[in-house]
Amino acid sequence: RQAHAHIVAGACFSLGLRYAGTANPRATSAIRERLLDFRRLRNASKSAETTGNTQHDPLALSQRPETPILEMCLCTTAIALSMVMSGTGDLDTLRLLRDLRWNCSAEIRCGSHMALGAAIGLLFLGGGSCTLGTSPRDVAALIIAFFPRFPNTTSDNQYHLQALRHLYVLAVKRREIEAIDVETRQPVFLPIEVAFVKSKKNCKMSAPCILPNIDDVSSLRVSSERYYPVTINLQKTPSIRKLNGNSTTSSSMSYEDYRQHIHTALYVKKKAGHLSYVHDPHA
To answer: Containing H/E element for 70?
Structure first.
């Protein structure tokens, strides 16, 4: 039981590192399913301890590990789910994390609340303007920051120095894309299509949003009949700095680092006779 719980939690943590910041639906579904399994095990444990009867609870008899191990695996899986969905503010994930955090029994220690609070924070990273990277340096920082040894008290540094929890900031990337109306100079809601280098299938998104891994994106295109067509080729653009529109960017920043901290302002112009999506969402 203990080995199975650790293996499942470790696999979910690996998926979280591999697909950090991508909002990959298959990885999200796999991790969420295991997180729900751990929640059922914890609820079965609470029910068995309350009633004092485990004869009619097969989960409690065959699969439930000890409470400290169960809590550690549950928190590790919750952090893995938030790493994948970082910066998206996904409501279903938020509801699940809030439900997990609601338990305030005496057996739930400080580390569990810390881990679930960190998971909710990752979900709204940078107020929805940032996400996590997947480069080797980013993965190393995430492993150090979310190492699955959570403290029993606020002063517990026996297995992991708590100051290292802040190293997740080294993996934070700003990949926000925002559509700006050239006439009003105000942000607007706008459907766009994102084309990838290694995939022929385009991804439909609504700006403002967070781009996936910028190295995998080949082009951005406005896919709306209300606005004039605009296409930006990120692979052939000689200087990504033009997309950012920030002339104060340090000249010492490398091209690769700059691509990882891109803030793209997509300037668009509305066609005559059309309303914005705020005033007319369904046309």
So the answer is: helix 67-84
Q: Kindly give the pairing relationship between strand 187-188 and strand 130-132.
A: unpaired
pLDDT reported for residue 97: 93
* pLDDT tens for each residue of 132-187: 988 899 999 999 999 988 888 888 888 788 889 999 999 998 888 888 888 888 88
Residue 85 phi, psi dihedral angles, 5° rounding: -95, 20
- pLDDT, residue 217, reads 78
Specify burial of residue 220 (Cβ count, 10 A radius: 0-12, 13-18, 19+). buried
Strand partners, 131: 173
Calpha distance 100→81 (Å, rounded): 13
Please say whether the beta carbons of 172 and 141 come within 8 A: no
Listed range (92-101, 142-151, 263-272) with the worst mean pLDDT: 263-272
Q: Which residues contact 270 (CB under 8 A, 6 or more apart)?
A: 181, 183, 188, 226, 227, 276
Tell me how far apart the alpha carbons of residues 203 and 266 are, in angstroms, rounded to a whole number: 17
Phi and psi torsions of 170, nearest 5°: -70, -20
The burial class, CB within 10 Å (0-12 / 13-18 / 19+), for 104 is: exposed
Strand ranges in 1-157 using DSSP code E only, listed in sequence order: 130-132
What does 168-188 look like in DSSP terms, one character per residue? GGGGEEE-EEEEEETTT--EE
* CA quadruple 250, 254, 258, 260: dihedral sign: negative
What is the C-alpha end-to-end distance of the chain, expressed in Å? 55
Q: What angle do CA 66, 143, 5 make, to 5 degrees?
A: 25
**Closest by CA position to 19, among listed 160, 134, 108, 169:** 134
